């Protein structure tokens, strides 16, 4: 089936694009390979989204976005796109479940958590190693946890983990945090939070569950090994060191910068009729509010593109 607009990804950017597309009476399809909502659906508190109601959460915000998309008639399906043909006027997307055609495409594939890439990380993921405090924080009630990173996400998640853990230690690879000053202040003044400076994890160890980790002081070169408390038997390591854009499918097809899709201020890529929105594109600020804004702009510009390229031609 041919659509006016296909949106790849159902995070805040994709849902915003789908909402605007459907509301503009475009035949709109949103394709998501994984869970609807992207990163924000695992966030416990969304306090910086304008108009957020009291105690707003990622899941509740996404649920409202999905409801709006459905109300305006956007179609949503789950499939993994494996091949794309973007150079012709009609774009072709090939997935594991089917083939899709569209006059315009909006890429909103987002980003995924970066890994430390150290021995034991992969084997112990879900067994003490996590990338989502909201998902796994309660598993570490009354245990010790370590948070890797020094930015906004790391500090915010460290604060969230204080609800469960008896102690939270932030492992910063530098001598200062990079989070916003307001967040730093909360972290530095919290009785449950400590910070280890100039520290990097070199290895994670355990027999089926995280039991120890090897730490390097990158200033002195000293190597130490931290072991779980004997009574606990384990501890938690939560990794928040940024995200990797999910753009591999578009390599050698779209202009990229450090793996992110390059667009202009109207979300247009270097290929006519192809737009990008949200965390997958090269931008300064990656937040829900900017993702939603990107999606809205991309959809409006896609509508204008279709109007100019197709409807004008049809009237000739």
TrEMBL record:
One of its GO terms (cellular component) is cytoplasm. GO terms for biological process: removal of superoxide radicals. It comes from Tepidibacter thalassicus DSM 15285. This is Thioredoxin reductase. InterPro entries: FAD/NAD-bd_sf (IPR036188), FAD/NAD-binding_dom (IPR023753), Ferredoxin-NADP_redctase_2 (IPR050097), Pyr_nucl-diS_OxRdtase_2_AS (IPR008255), Thioredox_Rdtase (IPR005982). PROSITE patterns: PYRIDINE_REDOX_2. Its EC number is 1.8.1.9. Homodimer. Binds 1 FAD per subunit. Belongs to the class-II pyridine nucleotide-disulfide oxidoreductase family. The keyword Disulfide bond applies. Gene3D superfamilies: FAD/NAD(P)-binding domain. Keywords: Disulfide bond, FAD, Flavoprotein, NADP, Oxidoreductase, Redox-active center. Pfam families: Pyr_redox_2. One of its GO terms (molecular function) is thioredoxin-disulfide reductase (NADPH) activity. Its cofactor is FAD. Residues 3-295 form the FAD/NAD(P)-binding domain. It catalyses: [thioredoxin]-dithiol + NADP(+) = [thioredoxin]-disulfide + NADPH + H(+).
